Description:
CATH topology: Rossmann fold
Number of strands: 10
Mean pLDDT: 90
CATH architecture: 3-Layer(aba) Sandwich
Radius of gyration: 18 Å
Number of domains: 1
Strand content: 15-25%
Order of helices and strands: HHHEEHHEHEHEHEHEHEEE
Shape: globular
Largest sheet: 8 strands, mixed
Bound molecules: S-adenosylmethionine
Distance between the termini: 32 Å
Low-confidence stretches: none
Helix content: 40-55%
Number of helices: 10
CATH superfamily: Vaccinia Virus protein VP39
Amino acid sequence: MLDRIKAALGYYWQAKTLYQIHSPRAFEFAQQLVDDDRDFYVFGQIETYRALLKSRTEILEIKDLGAGSTTGAGNKRAINEIAQSALSPRKWGKLLFKLAAHYKPKTILEFGTSLGVSTMYLAAADSNARVVTMEGSPEIAQVAREGFARYEYSNITSLIGSFDDRLEEAIAACDKRLDLVYIDGDHREEPTIRYFERIKPYLHDDSIVIFDDVYWSSGMTAAWERIKSDPQVRLSIDLYKYGVIFMTPDLLEEKHLKIVSSHWKPWAQGLFG
Length: 273
Ligand SMILES: C[S@@+](CC[C@H](N)C(=O)[O-])C[C@H]1O[C@@H](n2cnc3c(N)ncnc32)[C@H](O)[C@@H]1O
């Protein structure tokens, strides 16, 4: 706990706002995505779906597949409990939508569908983008699938099974070219690095990879440090919850950046460097 508080304070202290960023790509990211508060019509629909999930008391059988997939409360959980604790909050769902809307990926691969909220945010940005999502707990995935059908998301392919087992098929379903990848499941060091190594051959200059919860544990932070120092990673943006990497060449002097919304540092207008 103390480690996480220290990490959060350290992050906040070092984080820059858009007024302090020189790299064009990182500046664009801060301005268009981090500082942008706009809401889109579809957010309301996805949040209605989330509210519906929070009212459902049916119990699901959970398969324990990795850190973060269970709460230690056994292998049965109510839908409303999962909706309460395991899904991307609205703020971060909005960022996923904006990332997809801004960079216009044609293929999106998600590790960890859960009940499908983040998948919907990713898929809503462009109905022509193909979203492939993997979930290891069949009963959870089934609820997500019903949600996708109910709201008519025809661009989502949902695969059920462990990431290790389904990844090859998922990559093939993205035509072996991954434009945007969101890794939000199995928050442990070794598997996170392993998934990155497995997707790496299918990333290209314009690919973006988002890692969820990079400060969730010391193992996740170690994985994040190792991944962002990979020579193929040209820019890393640390948003505290998400770690985002770009493979596109960028200004070398700003290779690793921590970025925070200027609302959180209103005095940081870049006047003091
Ligand atoms: C944090 S939840 C995903 C939340 C979802 N992305 C959202 O924000 O709405 C992580 C999910 O990944 C699944 N998961 C964890 N490890 C897995 C693995 N090794 N293979 C397949 N699924 C896994 C869990 O069952 C869980 O539903």
